[in-house]
Structures are given as structure tokens and as C-alpha cells.
Amino acid sequence: MNKQETIAPNSFKMIRAMAGIGILCGLLIVFTYEGTKPRIENLRAEALKEAIFKVIPGSTQMQPYAYQDNTFKAGDKSDKDVVYAGYDDSGVFKGLAIVAAGQGYADVIRIIYGYNIDQQEVIGFYVLESKETPGLGDKIEKDPDFLNNFTDLNVSLNEDKDGLKNKVTTVKSGSKVNEYEIDGITGATISSRAIGDIIASSAEKWMPIIHKNRSIFKNIDNE
Prior knowledge:
Blueprint: H1 3-55, E1 61-68, E2 71-74, E3 82-87, E4 93-103, E5 108-116, E6 121-129, H2 139-142, H3 144-147, E7 153-154, E8 169-171, E9 181-183, H4 189-212
Parallel strand pairs: 8-9
Antiparallel strand pairs: 1-2, 1-3, 3-4, 4-5, 5-6, 6-7
């Protein structure tokens, strides 16, 4: 019996074993994913709900509104183009929460910000997902001076109500002079500018649409 004839059967057993292990691992991954998916989605929904209440001061209830056919309709968080209306315990409307995303230094940054329709201001800010550099870029989540930018950031509309009067812009730390500017973070320039760009782009899209439909959000009974 030559060498090739003795090796072939062992190779077949090895390939069969590896294929079996591969299939088993694949099934375990699928079952684990499917088994944990509902819990993961529930945890994400709870985290989003808490974030909404953080960026809309005074809110304790919320209602998603989906933008469809040029208007907002009470919808579900799984709908596309959703904003979240926040209400206090008595059902009084307190503002909107809007999710937005954009490229940061390391990866995509996903944020949520609060919006006061009457004052036309950003009134809250929270980072939902970020992989910015620890100790530098992640200051967008922790630096109190930077976070103070988002208590009354001006995003008012122009005279025709079809765009912003002034584009939201991130400036060098300590050089902010206008209410529509964001004081940046020294050492985290790219990350802080990314936040300004994300809010500017989102506000330019949403504020005119929200203004046209603002009466819809006033009553939580719309749900």
C-alpha cells in the first residue's frame, strides 16, 4: 500500500469532522442570536426611551411619530424617519427628540438631541453610540463645557421657513460668539466638529418639516 492510499481516508475523516464542527458552530451562533435578539431589542428600546427623557427636560411620556406622505402620524420606533414627542405627567407637550448620525474620527457617531419647537432651540444632547478615542474623542459624551452647548443652541428657521437662518457650526474652544455656534473641544477637534455637522445636517432636514406640522405634536391623544 503506497503513502497516498493511507493518507486519503484520514484526510476525509478530518474534513468531515471539520465540516461537522463548522455546521454545529453555525447553528449555535444562529440559535444564540435568535434567542437573545428579543432581549437585545428590548434593552435598546429602554435605552432609547431613557435617552429621549434626558434630552427633553420635564418629559415622562413619549410618542413616536413617523413622517409619511408629507405629514407626521403616530407610529412605531421601527418606522423610517421617526421623531419622538415628549410629554410631562399631565400630557403637556415638552419637545421633540431626534436621532441623527454621521462620521466621526473613528467610526459613525449616533446621537439624539432634544428640540423646543416654540423657541427653535436644541435643548438636550446625548450620545447613543460612539467609538471615538477614549480620553480624547469620547469627551463629546463627558465634557461639561461641551455639553453646555446643547441647552439652548439656536436652530431657528429663516424668513421663508424652508431652512435654517444660520448653519450650526463648531468653532474653536472658547471662541463661541453666536447662539448657533458650538464651542469645540481642544484635543478632540474632529469629534466635536462631527457633532456640529451631524446636528446641522439633521436640523436642516427636520426643522422646516416639523414647523409645517408642529400642531400635530401638541396632544399626546394623537396616538
